[in-house]
Amino acid sequence: MSWRVENRRLAVIDERAEPYLTEELKRTLRETYFPRYPTKRAVLLPALHLVQHEYGWIPQRAIAEVAEFLEMAPAETATFYEEYWLKPKGKYLLQVCRSLSCELCGSKPITDHIRKKLAIEVGETTSDGKFTLVELECLGACGNAPVALINDVMHEDLTSETLDRVLDGLPEDPHHFRDPVVTWEK
Ligand code: FES
Predict the structure, then answer these.
(1) Best mutation site among 95, 136, 138 for ligand 1, i.e. most ligand atoms within 8 A of its Cβ?
(2) Which residues in the chain land under pLDDT 70?
(3) Nearest to residue 64, comparing CAs of 87, 47, 85, 80?
(4) Full-model pTM
(5) At what angle do helices 44-55 and 60-69 cross, to 10 degrees?
């Protein structure tokens, strides 16, 4: 069994008691983000990214909390951007490029492999909430097609075997999943 996330723009009412914009997130915005932008309003999009990175999606209440913190009217902004998820999705978002170069180099078999392996269709999330599968357009890495994004990490020259290795090695906590080719130093 799986749940569909096709229409990511539909709001989900969330009953969480504590605020999404925690004191720690506020501190990060205040100390790290505010100095980089000319006004508080200008921090809106990065702030929404921060919330999405923390929770995997952006609940309506979180949008209101961010707007209040930035001294703005509650924002509709998130609905205009495809990369913001306004409904829950899997811990790991598998985004397979379906544009021409990737299609010619085998993106369809990659998508089919994921569909069979995880028993979900494109636009669905596994019943354990671990994976959501979507297709998207060119990621700008056509020379290394076929490619897919797994959360924020690009994987190139994919085969079913290399994909299996990546999926099977994913950490339980997606916050620990980092691009192995990047040097993660402060
Ligand atoms: S067509 Fe897939 S990265 Fe360009």
Answers:
(1) 138
(2) 1-15, 75-80, 82, 180-186
(3) 47
(4) 0.75
(5) 140
- How much distance in Å is there from the Cα of 88 to the middle of ligand 1? 27
pLDDT digits (tens, 9 = 90+) for 101-130: 999 999 999 999 999 999 999 999 999 999
Within 13 A of 117's CA, how many CA atoms are on the CB side?
18
Do the beta carbons of residue 139 and residue 103 sit within 8 Å? no
Is 102 a pocket residue for ligand 1 (Cβ < 6 Å)? yes
Domains of the chain (ranges plus CATH)?
A: 1-86 (1.10.10.1590), 92-176 (3.40.30.10)
Which two three-digit tokens encode residue 3?
A: 């749940």
The per-residue b/e assignment along 106-122, b for 16 or more CB within 10 angstroms, e otherwise, is: bbeebbebbeeebebee
- 25 CB contacts (<8 Å, ≥6 apart)? 50, 51, 54
Span from the CA of 178 to the centroid of ligand 1 (angstroms):
22
Atom of ligand 1 nearest to the CA of 144: 3
